[in-house]
Design brief:
24% helix; eight-stranded mixed sheet; alpha/beta; 40% strand; 16 strands; single chain
Length: 221
């Protein structure tokens, strides 16, 4: 039964993100998927991606999915995605999804959070050296989350802080770039994944529950 539920969950996610389509944007989709079916364990999955897009259709998607079907277990999924649009696209259909589910669980924690920024820049841009350093520091801080030494409230507060930091970098550390490279899309991608055995929360759920959070997409003219 658990395998069937997991398969259905993956199918729902694939349908929501339009994974069946075969487009260049598919490679720039960003996903963090934490599936836990082992009693007494905790899993954390993190994903961070920057996509540079110069096309008429913008459909890169961002998703965080956390799923538990076990006892005294937890799953945490966190996805950060920045989409910088160099062109004047005709269609923007990017999606931002967070889904957290406990299925037939006893004392389980499922948490998912997806953060997405979409900016139309009016042409090629790049981050200043200080902006790159700040983003690299944020990536390092995300890696620290893999240690799992936090409560759920502390995790949410830290993610909110990172959200504000990224917003500030996008507002102040992007500058016009030189001639664009030949390819239509350039991608910066760093995906951090891992598992921890340290309990991440003081909050637990009993039975079958759903708990998720998603940050609305930000679009800048």
């Amino acid at each position: 039964m658990r395998r069937i539920v997991i398969a259905l969950l993956v199918l729902v996610l694939a349908t929501a993100l339009g994974v069946a389509r075969a487009t260049p944007a598919q490679a720039q989709d960003n996903t963090a998927i934490a599936i836990n079916t082992k009693d007494g364990t905790d899993i954390i999955k993190l994903a961070f991606k920057i996509a540079h897009v110069n096309q008429e259709v913008v459909d890169q998607s961002n998703a965080a999915v956390a799923f538990n079907s076990c006892e005294q277990c937890s799953s945490i999924a966190i996805a950060f995605q920045i989409i910088l649009i160099f062109s004047d696209p005709e269609v923007v259909t990017s999606e931002n999804v967070a889904l957290a589910v406990n299925y037939q669980c006893d004392a389980c924690v499922a948490f998912a959070s997806a953060y997405q920024w979409i900016l139309t820049t009016g042409g090629p841009v790049h981050f200043t050296p200080e902006g790159k350093q700040r983003l690299n520091e944020l990536r390092m801080q995300l890696r620290e989350l893999l240690k799992g030494d936090f409560t759920l409230d502390q995790l949410i507060a830290e993610l909110d802080r990172m959200k504000g930091e990224i917003g500030d970098v996008l507002a102040s550390e992007l500058v016009p770039a030189g001639p664009k490279k030949d390819e239509d899309e350039v991608e910066e991608n760093e995906t951090t994944t891992g598992e921890t055995t340290t309990a991440p929360a003081e909050t637990t759920t009993e039975g079958t529950t759903t708990d998720g959070s998603t940050t609305p997409t930000t679009t800048t003219p």
